[in-house]
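Handout, page 2. Input:
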Amino acid sequence: MEAKLDALGYPVGDVDGDITKRAKQALCAWRETNGMPVSRGGLTAEDVRSVLTATKRPAANKAPGIYVNKTCLVLYQIVGKEIRRIVWVSTGGPGYETPNRTGTVWRKWAGAHESSLYDDAYMYDSIYFLKDRPGIALHGSRVNSLIKTYPASHRCVRVMRPQIHEIFAETPIGTKVQVYGKY
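Output:
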């Protein structure tokens, strides 16, 4: 199951036969992109049957853009009719929730910079998408260990490096960004 999900582009972490929290994120994303009930729950017989009989990742059923699913804690980058990549994210933790909203990329800041809101909080390849909430961005963090399997940021969407670098390079100003779901 893990090897097949990983081969189809759903990141599971270590392929070791253990359904970890990372593997559950991949299963959650699989369920969503295949029209199944979305949850971070454990492996079901329907999951096994669906994954093992798949020959390719399904086509995108959303318009081009970036979609952050807070239930699964994954980001989908859709280019054309293709899901370009699925990556792990960490959204805002308790008291700092990332709002469920749709916006468009209005500013990009390449490389590293310190947050204007939090001392010693460094952001990499920041993509800002809510003009009325200018402190919220998709960005890489100083270390990948800050991209937790639970909401842990201060409203932003933390993305693994080098994935944020690739997303940054492929995301023009004006790209749709939608945040939805509930952890």
